[in-house]
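Sequence, please.
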């Protein structure tokens, strides 16, 4: 057997394997489950390239945004997209994280950049808790009323 026919045989084997895996749904499953990695990998790569001193510090802004957004998409993909009704404020957090990374590691230590990044992070956390309170507010109110009522019953003044 010559080298050319061996190469053609390997190509035929690879093509058959790809077709078989495609028909069995392996590629569809991988694409369905792991597509957020297409966003996570560039975010991590930008971090690695900055810390490897190959890119300037400003690349940390999109790196932070991509990484946080990819984590949110992984959570939504794995645990159901209904969780996004609670997690949407973390998209705002991603911008705050990117700006904060640039503030910490970049050459510009301006107070306004620090203030803006922390304000975005604080607004994001506040909106997250407001979303939880809005969604679970009735349950929280019920638990508070039960606790206050139990405290009033158990700690009432005792008359002799």
């Amino acid at each position: 057997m010559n080298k050319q026919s061996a190469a053609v045989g390997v190509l035929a084997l690879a093509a058959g394997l790809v077709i078989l895996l495609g028909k069995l749904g392996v590629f569809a499953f991988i694409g369905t489950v792991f597509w957020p990695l297409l966003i996570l990998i560039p975010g991590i790569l930008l971090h690695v390239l900055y810390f490897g001193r190959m890119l300037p510090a400003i690349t940390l802004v999109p790196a932070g945004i991509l990484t946080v957004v990819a984590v949110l998409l992984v959570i939504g993909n794995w645990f159901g997209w209904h969780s996004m009704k609670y997690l949407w404020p973390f998209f705002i957090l991603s911008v705050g994280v990117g700006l904060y990374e640039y503030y910490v590691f970049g050459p510009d230590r301006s107070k306004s950049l620090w203030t803006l990044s922390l304000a975005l992070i604080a607004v994001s956390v506040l909106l997250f808790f407001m979303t939880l309170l809005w969604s679970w507010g009735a349950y929280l109110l019920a638990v508070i009323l039960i606790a206050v009522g139990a405290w009033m019953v158990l700690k009432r003044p005792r008359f002799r």
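The chain has two domains: 1-32, 35-154.
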